């Protein structure tokens, strides 16, 4: 079973995403900001990260930069999932090493098709 | 809606578009024709059918027929067909057409344009291999309204997220408010024309690859057979036909067979190919 870390400061979004991804047979872990997500990755590196952008303490982009700078780890596939839906944000995310990008609002079809595209399903 | 009216409209749709609508789906008539009734300042779908029966207005008939089409489509729908296009169909044609350097592709029920634009993006990505080639994508649909949407190439955030990789969105789309528009370089690779699959495609010319996906499902066996027979006539012996995930030639047409190991992709059978060579 593949694992996915859901990083979002909204409990509701985490819950919805968890439901969808559990339906796609992922083992789920959650974090409410970038800092907690880094800690979660240090404990156990997931196969995938579903990543919000705007969060307190450490935002999604900062998290991604720190994650990609980690040496000697198995780098997970990172799919952004954010209300930031302009080209500029998309480009910055992809340049920082994101694998895919979901613009909120999302539904199960979008999550599934994006996860298929990056080879997680 | 009374039985008479239902029979009348079912018959009309069958003649105009091949659509088979059964009694259990009568509710679809109500929900989809309501907006047409409103547009024509009529009180109800019953009133609309009344006018249709007495006045036989051509524009109203067209509006009704178009309103009953199902236009759902996605970029890279089912993904595999497009991998097969890139990995099997295109390499074959690059070799087989090396002398003429020309390939013609037909998206035969293109709806709002996702299918032809998907093909255009794939070809654009392969541009290095295609230098000096003339590649045409002809995209047709019965519905003029949906063709207008296709030509505009303007899609909602939902539409650009199902199936379209973000890297291609970045490369080939620009943002317009809440929507996303396909770039000019991709749009100009596709030429759109209205075309009804119940008629002969001869005037469109010959096509090396035909995408006829997710439209045969609305037809009965006889219509499916006739459509496939006409497509067979405008394909070279080594052409390729794509059908949708729920469609097959089995029991419908002897002209096509599945390409071994490639579900969803069809080629002419010996008979079909021989027929075409004779016809020249
Ligand atoms: C579900 S869409 C398929 C779109 C695309 N090929 C795909 O697979 O995503 C079906 C399309 O077939 C068109 N259609 C229905 N009857 C037709 C006919 N008789 N001739 C041409 N197009 C027709 C409809 O207008 C509609 O846009």
Overview of this protein structure:
- The complex is a heterodimer of chains A (121) and B (280).
- The model of chain A has no long low-confidence stretch (mean pLDDT 97).
- Chain A has 5 helices and 5 strands, in the order E-H-E-H-E-H-E-H-E-H.
- The radius of gyration of chain A is 13 Å and the shape is globular.
- In chain A, helix 2 (34-43) packs parallel to helix 3 (60-69).
- With 121 residues, chain A is of the alpha/beta class.
- Chain A has a 5-stranded parallel β-sheet with strand order 2-1-3-4-5, sandwiched between helices.
- In chain A, strand 3, helix 3 (60-69) and strand 4 form a beta-alpha-beta unit.
- With 280 residues, chain B is of the alpha/beta class.
- Chain B folds into 2 domains: 3-69, Chemotaxis Receptor Methyltransferase Cher, domain 1 (Orthogonal Bundle), CATH 1.10.155; 80-279, Vaccinia Virus protein VP39 (Rossmann fold, 3-Layer(aba) Sandwich), CATH 3.40.50.
- In chain B, strands 6-2-1-7-8-10-9 form a 7-stranded mixed β-sheet.
- In chain B, helix 10 links the parallel strand 7 and strand 8.
- In chain B, helix 1 (3-17) packs across helix 4.
- The longest helix of chain B is centred in the N-terminal third of the chain and has 17 residues, at 80-96.
- Chain B starts with a helix and ends with a helix.
- The model of chain B has no long low-confidence stretch (mean pLDDT 95).
- The interface between A and B is medium-sized, with 17 and 13 residues.
- S-adenosylmethionine is lined by residues 17-18, 69-73, 77, 109, 111, 115, 141-143, 146, 196-198, 213-215, 244 of chain B.
- Residues 17-18, 69-73, 77, 109, 111, 115, 141-143, 146, 196-198, 213-215, 244 of chain B line the site of S-adenosylmethionine.
């Amino acid at each position: 079973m593949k694992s996915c870390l859901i990083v979002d400061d909204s409990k509701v979004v985490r819950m919805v995403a968890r439901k969808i991804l559990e339906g796609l047979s992922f083992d789920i872990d959650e974090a409410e900001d970038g800092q907690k997500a880094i800690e979660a990755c240090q404990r156990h590196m997931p196969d995938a990260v579903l990543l919000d952008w705007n969060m307190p303490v450490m935002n999604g982009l900062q998290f991604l930069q720190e994650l990609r700078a980690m040496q000697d780890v198995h780098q997970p596939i990172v799919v952004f999932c954010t209300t930031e839906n302009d080209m500029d944000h998309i480009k910055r995310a992809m340049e920082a090493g994101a694998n895919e990008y979901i613009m909120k609002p999302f539904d199960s079809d979008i999550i599934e098709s994006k996860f298929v595209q990056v080879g997680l399903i | 809606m009374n039985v008479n009216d239902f029979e009348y409209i079912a018959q009309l749709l069958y003649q105009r578009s091949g659509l088979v609508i059964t009694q259990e789906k009568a509710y679809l008539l109500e929900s989809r024709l309501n907006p047409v009734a409103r547009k024509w300042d009529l009180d109800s779908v019953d009133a609309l059918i009344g006018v249709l029966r007495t006045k036989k207005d051509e524009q109203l008939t067209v509006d009704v027929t178009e309103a009953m089409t199902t236009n759902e489509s996605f970029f890279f729908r089912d993904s595999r067909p497009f991998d097969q296009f890139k990995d099997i169909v295109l390499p074959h044609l690059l070799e087989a057409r090396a002398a003429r350097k020309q390939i013609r592709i037909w998206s035969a029920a293109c709806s709002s344009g996702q299918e032809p634009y998907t093909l255009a993006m794939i070809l654009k990505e392969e541009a290095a291999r295609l230098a000096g080639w003339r590649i045409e994508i002809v995209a047709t649909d019965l519905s003029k309204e949906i063709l207008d949407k296709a030509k505009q190439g303007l899609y909602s955030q939902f539409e650009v997220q199902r199936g379209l990789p973000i890297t291609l969105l970045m490369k080939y789309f620009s943002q317009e408010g809440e929507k996303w528009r396909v770039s000019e370089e991709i749009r100009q690779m596709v030429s759109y024309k209205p075309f009804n699959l119940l008629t002969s495609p001869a005037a469109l010319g010959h096509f090396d690859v035909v995408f006829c996906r997710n439209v045969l499902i609305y037809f009965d066996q006889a219509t499916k057979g006739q459509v496939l027979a006409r497509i067979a006539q405008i394909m070279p012996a080594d052409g390729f036909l794509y059908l949708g995930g729920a469609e097959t030639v089995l029991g419908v047409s002897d002209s096509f067979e599945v390409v071994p190991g490639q579900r969803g992709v069809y080629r002419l059978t010996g008979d079909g190919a021989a027929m075409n060579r004779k016809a020249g």
